Every structure is written in structure tokens, then in C-alpha cells.
């Protein structure tokens, strides 16, 4: 049996085959892209490790760091050294939150009203910070004039590198001093005996500026030589032992060194003026009607 294929049929067959090859190629590209996306997501999640699961809700590293950033800066060092306790606090917070949701507090009109007010405050702060206060233009001549007129604003206070050990018993403190003087490492002693949050860092406080320490400790800390350990200092929280490191004296900063601080100061002042000017413009463009009589009728 003789089969004849016309040129037209051959052309149609080739067109269908080409279309099929194109579809296959597109599918392969799509699969490759999905693979890349999946890899990115996996890598991102692998870095954002799960720290706890509370009734199905995951508390991740990102949640821990976000809540840690919300606490006062001086407390963050304590959190870093007491991670387990802070995680327990986050677990307790999540448990109470879940209970509140189950109890219907999420549908409370009062809660919704308070959230609406918080949202309004947040939007106002974001707008003012980003659109009004950030990056105002400050002429250099104004910065130089401010530097000359306010020299005390640009004095670098004295600072001393400090390590600490805090114990509740004076005899323990005296024993630590004796062991340090015999050659034992202060950092090891701090990790073993200190009751301060800094024990996880071997008692290291870094450079502490003048004015940042209680007066009782500052008088001793800024009078010691590098490598010198203090006698036990009795305070309400226990007996302090201070080890002094490098001591940097106070000095006047040059104009060039002061530029970053000058910009912050001047931008803050310019930002305040910009904010006042923007309010004047907003009020001029808006319709505002105050009900003075009703204001007087308010009861407290």
C-alpha cells in the first residue's frame, strides 16, 4: 500500500510538533523557576528557625528578635544572656493571646476602636517621620555656626573599658580578688561566680562613658589603672568588683568629627520647623469648624 504525504500535510505536522516542543520548553522553564523559588523559600525558612510551637502557632527566630528589639536597649543584653526565659515569656504571651481570641475579645468593639486609634497614631508617626522630619536640607554655614556657638555639645566624655562581677557575699568577692591577683582569668571567674546579666559575656561591659554609671561606681571606675581590680563595692544589689581596661580621656571634637552629630541636631531643628510649616499649610487648605460651646460643656 503506497502512502503519499503532501507538502501541506508535512507542513501541518511540523507546525504541530514545533508547538508541542514550545509547550514542553515552557513547562521546563516554569518547573526550573518553581525550583528556584522553592529553594529561596527553603533557605529563608532555614535561617528563620522555629523556637517553639504553641497550639500549632510557630514562634520563630524573627519573632524573638522583633520582640527583643521592642524592649529597652539596656535590657536587650539581659535578654541575649537569658534567651530561654525570654522565650518562656513569649510562649506565655501567645497562650494568653490565644485564650483571649477564643473568649471573643477579638470581636470586641472596644478593642476594635482602640486598634483603630493605634493605627491612626502609627500612620501619623510614619508620615511625619518619613515625609517631614527626614532629610531636611541644612546649609553647612548653619552647621558651622552652631558648632562655634555650642562647643560643649561636641565634647567627647571620658570613657573606660570595664568588666564586672556582682556577688551577694563579701567573702566570695574577696576570694575572687585573691584568685585574680594570683593569675586566674577575670572572664572565667565572672562566668563562674557573677550574678549579673553580663556573666554570659564574661562580665564585659565594653566602654562605659562618664555619666552612665552610678556615682558610687563611677568615682572608682574612672580612678583605676588598666588591669586594676577594685575592692568589693557594696551596693543595694550586691558587691561589685570592677576590672578596668583602656581609659580614654575627655576631649573636644573637631568640626569634621562633629559633622554626623551636627547633621542630626540641625536636621532635628529643621524638621521641627518643617513640621510647623506643614501644619500651617494643611490648616490653610482644610475646612475646620470648632464647637466652642460643646467644648465648654465637657465633663471630667
Written description of the protein model:
The protein is of the alpha+beta class and 300 residues long. Helices cover 60% and strands 14% of the residues. It folds into four domains: 1-43; 48-107; 110-154 and 258-284, no CATH class; 158-249, Chitinase A, domain 3. It has eleven helices and eight strands. The chain has a four-stranded antiparallel sheet with strand order 5-4-7-6, sandwiched between helices. Strands 1-2 form a two-stranded antiparallel ribbon. It has a two-stranded antiparallel ribbon with strand order 3-8. α6 packs across α10.
**Low-confidence blocks of residues:** 39-43
CATH fold-type name of the largest domain: Chitinase A, domain 3
Tell me, rounded to a whole number, the average pLDDT. 84
Shape label: extended
Please report the first level of CATH classification, the CATH class of the largest domain: Alpha Beta
Beta strands, count = 8
Please tally the helical runs, counting DSSP H or I stretches of 4 or more residues: 11
Helix content: 55-70%
Order of helices and strands: HEEHHHHHEEHHEHEEEHH
Structure classification = alpha+beta
Just name the CATH architecture of the largest domain: Roll
Rg value: 33 Å
Topology (SSEs and partners):
Elements: H1 7-47, E1 50-54, E2 57-60, H2 61-70, H3 73-81, H4 83-102, H5 109-133, H6 140-149, E3 155-156, E4 159-167, H7 170-181, H8 186-193, E5 204-209, H9 215-221, E6 233-235, E7 238-248, E8 251-252, H10 255-285, H11 292-297
Primary descriptors:
single chain; 300 residues; alpha+beta; 4 domains; four-stranded antiparallel beta sheet; two-stranded antiparallel ribbon; 11 helices; 14% strand
Amino acid at each position: 500500500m503506497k502512502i503519499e504525504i503532501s507538502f501541506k500535510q508535512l507542513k501541518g505536522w511540523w507546525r504541530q510538533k514545533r508547538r508541542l516542543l514550545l509547550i514542553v520548553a515552557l513547562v521546563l522553564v516554569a518547573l526550573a523557576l518553581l525550583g528556584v523559588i522553592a529553594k529561596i523559600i527553603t533557605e529563608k525558612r532555614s535561617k528563620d528557625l522555629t523556637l517553639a510551637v504553641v497550639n500549632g502557632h510557630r514562634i520563630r527566630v524573627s519573632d524573638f528578635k522583633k520582640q527583643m528589639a521592642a524592649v529597652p536597649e539596656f535590657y536587650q543584653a539581659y535578654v541575649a544572656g537569658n534567651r530561654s526565659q525570654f522565650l518562656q515569656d513569649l510562649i506565655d504571651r501567645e497562650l494568653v493571646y490565644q485564650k483571649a481570641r477564643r473568649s471573643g475579645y477579638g470581636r470586641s468593639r472596644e478593642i476594635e476602636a482602640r486598634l483603630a486609634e493605634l493605627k491612626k497614631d502609627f500612620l501619623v508617626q510614619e508620615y511625619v517621620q518619613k515625609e517631614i522630619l527626614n532629610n531636611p536640607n541644612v546649609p553647612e554655614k548653619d552647621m558651622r555656626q552652631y558648632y562655634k556657638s555650642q562647643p560643649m555639645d561636641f565634647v567627647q566624655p571620658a570613657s573606660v573599658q570595664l568588666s564586672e562581677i556582682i556577688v551577694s557575699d563579701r567573702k566570695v568577692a574577696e576570694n575572687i580578688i585573691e584568685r585574680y591577683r594570683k593569675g586566674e582569668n577575670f572572664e572565667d571567674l565572672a562566668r563562674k561566680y557573677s550574678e549579673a546579666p553580663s556573666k554570659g559575656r564574661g562580665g564585659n561591659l565594653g566602654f562605659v562613658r562618664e555619666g552612665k554609671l552610678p556615682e558610687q561606681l563611677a568615682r572608682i571606675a574612672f580612678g583605676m589603672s588598666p588591669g586594676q581590680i577594685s575592692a568589693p563595692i557594696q551596693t543595694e544589689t550586691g558587691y561589685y568588683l570592677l576590672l578596668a581596661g583602656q581609659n580614654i580621656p575627655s576631649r573636644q571634637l573637631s568640626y569634621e568629627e562633629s559633622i554626623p552629630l551636627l547633621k542630626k541636631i540641625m536636621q532635628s531643628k529643621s524638621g521641627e520647623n518643617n513640621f510647623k510649616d506643614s501644619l500651617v499649610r494643611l490648616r490653610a487648605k482644610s475646612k475646620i469648624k470648632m464647637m466652642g460651646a460643646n467644648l465648654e460643656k465637657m465633663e471630667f
